[in-house]
Amino acid sequence: MKVPLSRPDITQKEIDAVVEVLRSDILSIGPKIEEFERKIADYVGKKYAIAVNSGTSALHLIVRALGIKDGDEVITTPFTFIASVNCFLFERAKPVFVDIDPDTLNMDINKIEEKITEKTKAILTVDVFGQPMDMEKVNEIAKKYGLKVIEDSCEALGSEYKGIKAGTLCDAGAFAFYPNKQITTAEGGVIVTDDEEIAQLCRSMRSQGRPITGLWLEHERLGFNYRLSELHAALGIVQLERIEEIIKRRLEIAEKYNERLKDVKGVKIPYIAPEVNKMSWFVYVIRVDENIDRDKVMQYLIDNGIGCRPYFTPVHLQSYIKELTGHKEGDFPITEKVARSTIALPFFNKITDEQIDYVVDKLKEAIKIYSR
């Protein structure tokens, strides 16, 4: 049996929406992008949404709109996808890492203040695997020290912490729509904010620095081609209409895995904080005990047709980050210990009970074989 790690959930309605755009005269900068932005803004409860071609682009534009530059420091987590750090390295700002909470795997809020210096400009939080953080606490710290707050919710569309939607309690938040996300635009991302200046700057910079109301070949600032096409936006509109159905289905799949794995010796199922009243699952990541050879377990799964990945490799141990920052093994022990133990299992809307059972059976076999 073959079980992929992920697979997008595309229905005929999505296909029809994309074909409709293909048959129109407008493939970019048209009504679909505007409709998608309005619907995203309404869904998360923000005034403005600016759609772009990736979550990375969304984060980069937020960094530029906030004026983060060479010499500034940004506090963030080392346990994340690399884009959470690249977005301000593009502007030559310096990452200052804070180790993670061993349960939620999010940045440990209690360790943020000790990392703040006179060069600190912002705190960039990450809602790891879809689990949002206590952003009220983060904002209290930011307010105390006059810092900006960026919420990387690229993995958490639809999640809520104490009723607060992920990506909304910050100066600006970002979501992403890669095919393995809750909803997809194939490639794409979006910035959400209540700040009109941030919104206008991001709209301008995503399209070569054009003024909002200016002529086509006028440019008032350095910008990029970070636009999202009408095709991508049309796909996103239909996917967003299905968001609650998708979140519900992913919760059901996570619960099926939890039920089958909760009593397996050597396996730790994902922990969700009780304050998270709504979890929008991005991936399903287990952790195995230190006496189990994680890499051999993964290879066994792969050899048996099961897609899996080690989510995440610590950012501070990526080769170019080590060169830039001087970080080494041992600097963030919780992150490193967690990263050595994680396995992302197949997780997608249309996975069957038979496939889940197969994954679990093969995982049990692997653990039995490769326990030291």
Automatic annotation (TrEMBL):
Coiled-coil zones: none
Keywords from the UniProt entry: Pyridoxal phosphate
GO BP, sorted A to Z: polysaccharide biosynthetic process
Positions of post-translational N6-(pyridoxal phosphate)lysine modification: 181
Catalytic residues, chain numbering: 181
Superkingdom to which the source organism belongs: Bacteria
One Gene Ontology term of the molecular function aspect: pyridoxal phosphate binding
Family: Belongs to the DegT/DnrJ/EryC1 family.
Protein name: Polysaccharide biosynthesis protein
